Amino acid sequence: MNTGQFAGTVKVVLALMASAFLVACSSKPTVPEGQRFSEPDYNYVIGPGDTMEIFVWGNEELTTTAIVRPDGKFTTRLVEDLEASGMTPTQLARAIEEAYGEYVRQPVVSVIVNGFVGVPEQQIRVVGEAAEPRGVPFRQHMTLLDLMIAVGGMTEFAAGNKSVLVRTHNGQQTSYGLRLDDLLRDGDISANMALMPGDIVIISESWF
Question: CA-CA distance, 134 to 87, in Å (whole number)?
Fold first, then answer.
């Protein structure tokens, strides 16, 4: 086989593989109506990278700002290595009160989170042909359209209608087809849907 024949064979094989891939993606089921706009039972929990304001009422010298370290802990002026990751702000406030109780009489603490990162289980991750692939903290009432705005839309190489949503529901992981081209380029709002914490959106690349 000469070089020209070999190159032609390779192109045919790649074309067949691409066709098989697109067919497989197009066969993905759509998200069931019961999940499309259902609201999850959701409370924000603190994660590494979050910025917090910690107010200790009546003790201004203890009021401070803290960033949760990659190990999920943070340090205050009184206590080192307090665990924060996985707690709600209210739960963390009670934990700080308990820790401060050894040094301050009946401390009253409030925790305000103002720099949101969150734990991976409460992020929505976007990979593939997004303009800015990244993890986005989930927020209540978040939709697919909101997510695409947050990542700057798709690249020119995206095959939006071949994209996939990976969702874990009731302990089972399932893949669903998305119609991002219809939503973003044609303005078909019926392709929009509610998102859930932990969703993964894979934006496919166009092969042609």
Answer: 23
Identify the domain containing residue 84 by its residue range.
Answer: 51-115
Residue 132 and residue 36 share a domain: yes
Amino acid occupying residue 32 = P
Q: Domain holding 159: CATH number? A: 3.10.560.10
Token digits of residue 89: 């702000």
152 & 183 share domain: yes
- Residues 128, 104 share a domain: no
Q: What is the pLDDT of residue 30?
A: 73
Q: Is residue 46 part of a domain?
A: no
CA distances from 135 to 44, 194, 198, 200 (A): 15, 17, 10, 9
* pLDDT number for residue 34: 59
Burial class for 129, CB neighbours closer than 10 Å (0-12, 13-18, 19+):
buried
Please identify every stretch of the chain with a pLDDT value under 70, giving residue numbers as ranges: 1-27, 32-39, 208
Predicted TM-score of the model (pTM)? 0.74
Candidates 170, 195, 190, 169; CA nearest to 180 is 190
> Residue 57: what residue type?
W
Cβ atoms of residues 117 and 49 within 8 Å: yes
Contact 109, 96 (CB under 8 A): yes
Contacts of 48 (CB under 8 A, 6+ apart): 68, 69, 70, 71, 72, 85, 117, 119
